[in-house]
Amino acid sequence: MGLLSKKDAKLITDPLADNNPITIQVLGICSALAITADLKASIVMSVAVLFVLGLGNVVISLMRNIIPSKIRIIVQLIVVATLVIIVDIVLKAFAYELSKTLSVFVGLIITNCIIMGRFEAFALANGPWKSFLDGIGNSLGYGVILVIVGFFRELLGSGTLLGIKVLGDPIEKTGVYAYGYENNGFMLLAPMALITLGIIIWVQRARNTSLIEH
Amino acid sequence: MAINTDKNSYTVLFATGMVIIVGALLAFMASSFKEKITENKRIEKQQNILYAMGVNENDETSVEFVSKSVVGKEFTKYIVKQYVITGNDVVEDANAYLIDIKKEEAAAKDSNYTRRLPLFVGEKDNVTFYIIPVRGKGLWDAVWGYVAIDTQLVIQGVYFDHAGETPGLGSNIKERFFMDDFKGEHFMDGDTFKGVAVAKGNADPKNNRKTDFAVDAIAGATITGDGISAMLKKDLQLYVPYLKTLKQ
Questions:
Q1: What is the rounded distance in angstroms from the CA atom of residue B230 to the CA atom of residue B232?
Q2: Is the pLDDT confidence value at A56 over 50?
Q3: Residue B64 contacts residue B56 (beta carbons within 8 Å)
Q4: What's the domain range around A57?
Q5: A4 in a structural domain
Q6: Pick from B78, B71, B73: which is nearest to B45 by CA?
Q7: Is B121 in contact with B80 (CB distance < 8 Å)?
């Protein structure tokens, strides 16, 4: 990466695997469980978080020297809520259809612990550029896990990917359904998201034993 | 910078300043875009009403409204009459679709108030549709929609929407596989009002049984589904006295 110094590049690549916000820092679990029942929702949520976290980290980083430490959490919450609401209003005025798709995510973004977590752990102590990279890196790391979980839940739960019937039609009994395969409805419920996530964490730590905490 | 950010006076000052700035910013944004947003909502209402009676640009699995640029023209073409039903009075009103169902429902809690019920009459290929707006509660927030029925009081199409149901689960009420199930479904058993329940264990995924007053529920979205059942029961019932006069 010619554009970024080695240290800066690490800010982006670290959260993708060895310091992943979901599997290692255990942040943002609630949204990872709630909206990964299909792949499309996972992707939309990841992009929304990418935008909010990248921008929010920069804003908080610029304000880091003037934020009173006693009320910093409230200030962070206000910044993220304001950002999200402004985006929501602008979309409603100029891209109404898109705003309809995104509006259900607004509440989930504001309360996403990854955003608060990165504000608190990184943006308050680092400059805007570094914070921006950290925001992008962490939201990508978040997105990767969401997409993996969403992929398996939609495939095994509904037999579709992005709404396309990849395994055949369960009602007409075509494709794999002709051989007696059935969709696992349990995959659509939150407990299976947690189990899928657990399997990802297991695989990751089995491959890289230095991640195991004793 | 050498500001002592730990001082109480600074904290109070900062908090006050921030609230004023953010409040002013949001209020400014909201009011300057208000007209555009209201207009978008009005267009959406027309699109939704047309969608329910089958005027849309759906392909096999998608949900596509008639485009924004032609919706006004299509609306006047297909929606031939709009009524406002107040008790026993039925009046024609070309702006009936602008009636705010939420406000009417709230006002109707006062027993002196007679609720105004909008009803839209659509005509397409010589078939007459009566389109009824409905509104209820899902799991997290409001759910609403439009139900198009024919003169035999059989549902011919629906459109559902929601403010904040869980993506991938409750939000599927606005997907084709759910909405299309309502087509041909009965909600009257002779003269008795039954409604349409969103039922688990209905065991009728193709929806071959049109007179069982039930459609298949969505896995993982029980409360949203119950909300839809309750909404249909509550709001369709309001129109039954008027609808019965149509059937004769």
A1: 6
A2: yes
A3: yes
A4: 20-201
A5: no
A6: B71
A7: yes
pLDDT single digits (tens) B124-143: 888 999 999 999 999 989 99
Is A93 in contact with B37 (CB distance < 8 Å)?
Answer: yes
Q: Does residue A104 lie within any of the structural domains?
A: yes
Q: Is there a domain that residue A146 lies in?
A: yes
Residue A209: Cβ-neighbour burial (10 angstroms; 0-12, 13-18, 19+): exposed
* CB contact A67 to B (< 8 Å): yes
Asked if residue B116 lies in contact with residue B85, where contact means CB atoms within 8 angstroms, the answer is yes
| CB of B247 closer than 8 Å to CB of B153 | yes
Nearest to B11 among A65, A68, A90 (CB): A68
Q: Do residues A164 and A4 lie in contact, with contact meaning Cβ atoms separated by under 8 Å?
A: no
Q: Does A178 touch chain B (CB under 8 A)?
A: no
B64, with CB counted inside 10 A (0-12, 13-18, 19+), is: exposed
In chain B, what are the domain boundaries?
33-247
Instruction: Specify whether the CB–CB gap between B196 and B155 falls below 8 A.
Output: yes
| Identity of residue A189 | L
CB contact under 8 A, B26 and A86: yes
* Contact B15/A at CB under 8 A: yes
B228, β-bridge pairs: none
Tens of pLDDT, residues B178-232: 999 899 999 988 888 988 999 887 777 777 788 888 898 888 889 999 999 999 9
Looking at per-residue pLDDT, the higher value among B51 and B6 belongs to: B51
Mutation target for B interface from A39, A82, A88, A155: give the one with most B CBs within 10 A.
Answer: A82
- First vs last Cα of chain A: how many Å apart? 35
Nearest chain B residue to A100 by CA: give it: B163
Average pLDDT on B35-63 reads 89
pLDDT at A86: 86
Q: Min CA distance, A196 vs chain B (Å)?
A: 17
**How many domains does chain A contain in total?**
1
Q: Residue A121 carries which DSSP code?
A: I
Strands B155-162, B142-149: pairing is antiparallel
In a domain, A211, yes or no: no
Check if A103 contacts B (Cβ < 8 Å): yes
In chain A, which residue's Cα lies nearest the Cα of B21?
A: A82
CA B114 to chain centre: 21
CB atoms within 10 A of CB B12: 12
Helices marked H in chain A: 6-13, 29-34, 39-63, 72-94, 96-110, 113-118, 128-158, 190-207
Q: Residue B136 forms beta bridges with which residues? A: B143
- Measured CA to CA, the distance from residue A16 to residue A20 in angstroms comes to 5
* Contact (Cβ atoms closer than 8 angstroms) between residue A78 and residue A63: no
Structure tokens at A58: 């920069």
